[in-house]
Amino acid sequence: MKEILKKTFEGLRGLLSGMALTFRYLVHPDKVITQQYPENRAQLKLPPRARSRIELIKDEQNGVYRCTACGLCVRACPNNSIEVIRDRDPVTQKAKLNKFIYHFERCTICGLCVDACRSEALRMGQQFETAVYDSAQLTIILNKDSKPAGEEPASERKTASTPSETEAAPRPPSVSAAAIQPTPAPSSPAA
Q1: DSSP the chain
Q2: CB 121 within 8 A of CB 57
Q3: N or C terminus: fewer CB in 10 A for the chain?
Q4: Are 146 and 65 in contact (CB under 8 A)?
């Protein structure tokens, strides 16, 4: 009996403390920390530790991406969200970044790739509106504005008509369920 009264009292105390907090916010609306989204998009401020999709960082002095194509981020990623395609520099014979492909549809936004990067070439972005109708738009080439080896300048390249053509990596053709037919079981010979 004593235990039941103790639990009831603790429950009531928790309920009253929550109601007191709600009443305080009702009386002092300037203390409310909830942001009215999407009405306040222009002045919306995310916390500094908020995480979204990863971003590739450029060096401020020369405008080149910091990524050295070492592949540590690829090995650190638990679900293969990152592909680093590298080339060899013909002069130094060191690996250099050709394409950095990010599969956001697979990403859990854990940040292990950012922690593993020795050259500090990755960071967690602040963009949080990432909903799309086509999942192919979630496969993104993060260094698409840089000029990989053997590619013509951006001024000579023809532009794609839709964003999914520029951002999406090629996907294998899908197989429809109607194309998969079950194989008939072999009939046993009559004895």
Answers
A1: -HHHHHHHHHHHHHHHHHHHHHHHHHH-GGG-----TTTTGGG----TT---SEEEPBPTTT--B------HHHHH-TT--EEEEEEE-TTT--EEEEEEEEETTT-----HHHHH-TT--EEE--------SSGGGGEEETTTTS--TTPPPTTTSPPPSSHHHHHPPP-PPP--GGG--PPPPPPPPP-
A2: yes
A3: C
A4: yes
Measured from the Cβ of residue 143, the count of other Cβ atoms closer than 10 Å reads 21
Q: Residue 150: what residue type?
A: G
pLDDT tens digit sequence for 38-95? 888 888 878 888 889 999 999 889 889 999 999 999 999 999 999 999 999 899 888 8
Q: With beta carbons less than 8 A apart as the criterion, state whether 108 and 79 touch.
A: yes
Contact 54, 123 (CB under 8 A): yes
Residues in contact with 87: Cβ distance below 8 Å, sequence separation at least 6, in sequence order:
95, 96, 97, 98, 148, 149
| pLDDT higher than 70, residue 152 | no
Architecture of domain 54-151+160-167: 2-Layer Sandwich (3.30)
What are the φ/ψ torsions at residue 107 (nearest 5 degrees)?
Answer: -70, 140
Residue, of 1 and 148, whose pLDDT is higher: 1
